[in-house]
Design brief:
two-stranded antiparallel sheet, about 10% strand, alpha/beta, 5-stranded mixed sheet
Length: about 375
């Protein structure tokens, strides 16, 4: 018995264990050899692939060298191209800079010109604004004038005076003329008989007209129309009774409306008032129609004055005819004198030529006998 570490092991067991261990060692060697052989067989393709890989690596190295040379060539070409590109860009930038400078200069000049024109226009706008402000003040003043009856009447009289003074001679009318009945009209025009002096009076029914324009419903419209009819009828009646006097004035008179709008409203929507004025021999006129009427009166005045001066005109025409006859006689005498003077000048010229020829002969010491000259025969003319 063998004791090992306190345990008893038999020799048989040791032999068995050694055999097993030997078997295991041999088995491991066999397996190792077999594995080595298998590994050797497996590494043969790998070695072949490694050889191919080395060849490819060599090819890659050669390609890399060629690529390096190509890259150097491409780099040089790229550097030259970049240089050319930079030069071209510098040139184009210079051109663009010059053009931009020119454009900026032109734009600056154009902008300065535009700003100058804009300043002028702004000045004109400021002036127009001042005029509008002044006009607004004038409109407000006109509204203040028209809101008062007395100032409104004065406005109509001023407008009538302006129209009459422009249309008629100053000695053919009287402003604010007083008639025999003590009534005073705004204007009296001295027309010849017939028709005789004709009166013009200014009326301005503004309140009733504004009420008519500002009416918002039918009731207000009818009331405003009623007020306008009453006002116009009253004016027609007053002018007929005050300014138409038999034997002193014409058988009619004029009612002057300073507003074209009121005149148009009457003729458009109130024709019965116009007919009533015709019946009363009171003719309604506006500034435009008044100017036309006054121009007709001016033609009448001119014709009347020409008839009054017809005798003087005939006398002046007779004197003018005598002057013309006398002028014709004197022209004939002057023409006869001119003819005689022309004949005398011709004779003087002939005598001058003869004297010149004799002087030239004496200057040449020509002592030969002078040949007698043929006498000049002057034809006789019958006495005129």
């Amino acid at each position: 018995m063998i004791e090992l570490a306190g345990y008893a092991i038999s020799e048989m067991s040791l032999l068995v264990g050694g055999a097993v261990l030997l078997f295991l060692v041999l088995l491991m060697l066999f397996l190792g050899m077999r594995s080595a052989s298998r590994s050797l067989r497996m590494t043969e393709p790998l070695v072949h692939q490694i050889g191919n890989l080395g060849a490819r690596v060599q090819q890659l190295s050669d390609g890399q060298q060629q690529l390096s040379g190509g890259l150097i060539h491409v780099s040089e070409a790229q550097a030259a191209s970049q240089t050319n590109m930079l030069q071209l860009m510098e040139k184009r930038l210079a051109d663009v800079s010059g053009k931009m400078s020119e454009n900026l200069t032109g734009s600056a000049q154009s902008t300065a010109k535009s700003l100058g024109e804009l300043q002028q226009r702004l000045a004109a706008i400021d002036k127009a604004q001042d005029n509008i402000t002044k006009l607004s003040g004038d409109v407000l003043s006109l509204q203040d004038i028209l809101s008062n009856k007395q100032t409104r009447g004065a406005f109509g009289e001023i407008q009538l005076t302006d129209i009459v003074t422009k249309a008629l001679p100053s000695d053919s009318y009287k402003m604010q003329a007083t008639l025999s009945n003590g009534k005073r009209c705004d204007c009296l025009i001295d027309l010849p008989n017939p028709p005789g002096p004709i009166a013009i009076d200014s009326k301005f029914p503004l309140e009733s007209y504004e009420a008519l324009r500002n009416a918002e419903n039918d009731w207000q419209l009818n009331e405003a129309a009623k007020l306008l009819r009453i006002a116009i009828k009253k004016h027609i009646k007053d002018i007929h009774e005050k300014y138409i006097i038999e034997g002193e004035t014409a058988d009619g008179a004029l009612m002057f409306l300073p507003s074209e709008a009121i005149y148009a409203e009457l003729h458009a929507n109130f024709p019965e008032l116009v007919r009533e004025g015709f019946a009363a021999r009171v003719w309604i006129v506006s500034p435009t129609t008044c100017m036309a009427t006054l121009n007709t009166m001016r033609a009448i005045l001119k014709d009347a004055r020409m008839r009054e001066q017809a005798g003087a005109i005939r006398r002046e025409l007779g004197l003018l005819f005598s002057d013309v006859e006398r002028l014709g006689t004197r022209v004939e005498n002057l023409d006869r004198h001119f003819g005689q003077a022309a004949k005398d000048i011709a004779d003087i010229k002939i005598s001058s030529d003869k004297a010149g020829r004799r002087a030239r002969r004496l200057d040449n010491f020509d002592f030969e006998e002078l040949a007698p000259e043929a006498p000049t025969v002057v034809p006789l003319k019958a006495p005129e």
